[in-house]
Write a structure and sequence with these properties.
3 domains, about 5% strand, 5-stranded mixed beta sheet, alpha+beta, about 350 residues, about 70% helix, 14 helices
Length: about 350
């Protein structure tokens, strides 16, 4: 019985998920991120290829047009290499800036908005020799289940992606054998088309593997954050409060409301009864409401208490079964009577006022 209670069989609650995200524990697929970044990188390379090619030609043109051994100052290496650094920045910097932005959005797409201070907080215990030795053993030990799974996944991914790349080359084997004797531009065009096919095949394979890995990581994450029945109960107590305490508070509130209601009976104009099961106290004060109000009501023992308070305070008691039932069922305490009961209540109040005048 104890083992069953300790089993994590319940889906994680929204509060548990929120806490896990605060700790930085989310379903994350590095394979999916790598695949999307690679596909995006290839697309960016295609977009910036013309820009890179033209600037590379300009760099080579400037180099060979101004190539003069007599003007080379070996002692000024920085001044000599500065133009090349400049060209290098012009060629690759835009590509890497956009690639960095792409990687940021890919990670954001994968894990969502997560800012976990616990992940960046410095934990000095990780710098202790004992912890460092444990981490080193964990990295070196190849027979740990998780290490074996990750190693097998890496080998499988390498084989699948490599096979997809090889299939693109193998399908164009005839074109490769026919490169002998072709002009250089034609040969470069054929090699370029083969490389494009190979890259497309490899990107598609990585996307499929990334999608599968994302599903697997989500499954593992959902499994890791499952809760036991006791944890769900404890969390419910923390968020909603202990049922016993809530019941006690509700009981106290009802008792206070009942006392407040009973204190209004002496100021009532009349108490309408059933005659024994129902009792409804009515008050009519033009300064408080435009119509008569129900200031107290009750059944059985509570009705008995209302009648006794009314008797001790000389509040008239009138027996009218249908009106008493209708008022009890349709009007809350401190509520104004509905229009369909105006005539019946007015007759009762008129009877009470006339009785007082006769006395």
């Amino acid at each position: 019985m104890g083992n069953e209670a300790a089993e994590k069989t319940e889906e994680a609650t929204s509060r548990r998920r929120s806490k896990e995200r605060e700790r930085g524990n989310v379903a994350k697929s590095k394979d999916m991120e790598s695949a999307l970044v690679m596909v995006g990188g290839v697309a960016l390379l295609a977009v910036f290829s013309k820009h890179m090619y033209s600037n590379l030609l300009n760099m080579m043109r400037d180099t060979f047009m101004n190539l003069n051994p007599n003007s080379i100052d070996v002692s000024n290496a920085i001044g000599l290499l500065f133009p090349y650094f400049k060209y290098l920045g012009i060629i690759v910097l835009p590509f890497f800036v956009f690639l960095f932005i792409l990687a940021f959005f890919v990670i954001r797409l994968d894990v969502g908005h997560v800012f976990a201070l616990q992940k960046v907080k410095l934990d000095l215990t990780n710098l202790s020799p004992k912890r460092m030795l444990e981490n080193a053993k964990r990295m070196i030990n190849p027979f740990q289940p998780r290490s074996l799974v990750e190693f097998a996944k890496s080998i499988l991914k390498l084989v699948i992606v490599g096979a997809c790349g090889y299939s693109a080359i193998n399908s164009r084997k005839g074109d490769l054998l026919g490169l002998v004797g072709l002009a250089t531009p034609d040969a470069l065009n054929i090699i370029g088309s083969i490389l494009v096919n190979m890259i497309i095949n490899m990107c598609l394979a990585m996307l499929i593997l990334g999608y599968i890995d994302k599903k697997y990581q989500t499954y593992e994450y959902e499994k890791s954050i499952k809760m036991t029945k006791q944890e769900v109960k404890d969390e419910h107590k923390d968020t909603e409060g202990d049922p016993k305490i809530k019941a006690k508070i509700k009981s106290i509130q009802m008792q206070m409301a009942r006392q407040r209601m009973m204190s209004a009976v002496p100021q009532a104009d009349v108490v309408v009864t059933n005659p024994t099961h129902y009792a409804v106290a009515i008050q009519y004060d033009k300064n408080k409401a435009p119509a008569p109000m129900v200031v107290a009501k009750g059944v059985d023992y509570l009705a008995f208490q209302i009648r006794e308070i009314a008797k001790s305070n000389n509040v008239p008691i009138v027996e009218n079964r249908p009106v008493a039932r209708a008022l009890y069922n349709s009007v809350p305490v401190d509520g104004i009577i509905p229009s369909d009961l105006y005539v019946a209540v007015a007759e009762i109040l008129a009877y009470v006022y006339n009785s007082k005048r006769e006395q």
